[in-house]
Amino acid sequence: MDILITGASRGIGAELAKKLAESKHKLLLLSRNTERLNDVTTQCKELYNNHLVYPITFDLAKLEDNKDELIDKISAITNQIDVLVNNAGYLINKPFLKIDREDEMAMFQTNYFAPALLTRTLFSFIKRSKHSSIINIATMGAVQGASKFSGLATYSASKAALVTLTECLAEEFKEFRIRANALAIGAVDTEMFNEAFPGIDAGTTPEEMAEFIKWFVEEGYKRFNGKLIPVSDSTP
What we know:
A 7-stranded parallel β-sheet has the order 3-2-1-4-5-6-7, with helices on both faces. It has one domain (2-231): 3-Layer(aba) Sandwich (Rossmann fold). Helix content is 42%, strand content 16%. The longest helix has 21 residues, at 101-121. The chain has 8 helices and 7 strands; from the N terminus they run E-H-E-H-E-H-E-H-H-E-H-E-H-H-E.
């Protein structure tokens, strides 16, 4: 499959890239961090002998003004995308009464607007696949009834918006046979988590979460459409 992963230079995205490289998929790895992205690409090629791994340096925050640039980069690699994994995320741990507009906009930009605009921008690539799938990485904080945590109001709200978008896209894209699902992941021991919660044990490694997402990318998506799927070993 031809798979595009955003936020592929670190954390879950980087580990997912390596696990999918082992299965010999063609991978388009997108991040704004060129150095780290190239490191992940090299690991995919050298550890798993997969040379169908393509780093794409691009800042999704600037997608609105640079759509053609991204389309040209992807067109040089493939003419279709079987799976789009909107994994890039941004988290600021700050109480609601203290967070400012700039931080709020930054989280909504990365967690909602970027995946929404990217999906629209790449729709022509996605609909060419006979088994296309959009997988949006959300959070347990976006699940109604799940435990909520102080300092994550805006982050959770931005991911909740992505979840609702996912449900709506599944309906709108039925005629194109495009599936859309959201995975609400629990705490994972990534750099982003450790920056927001220093000294806290997440309990799940990026490798463990990436292994589940890999299964969903390859097989699990066939059983779901328009669903929010909790991926956490805690309740609720």
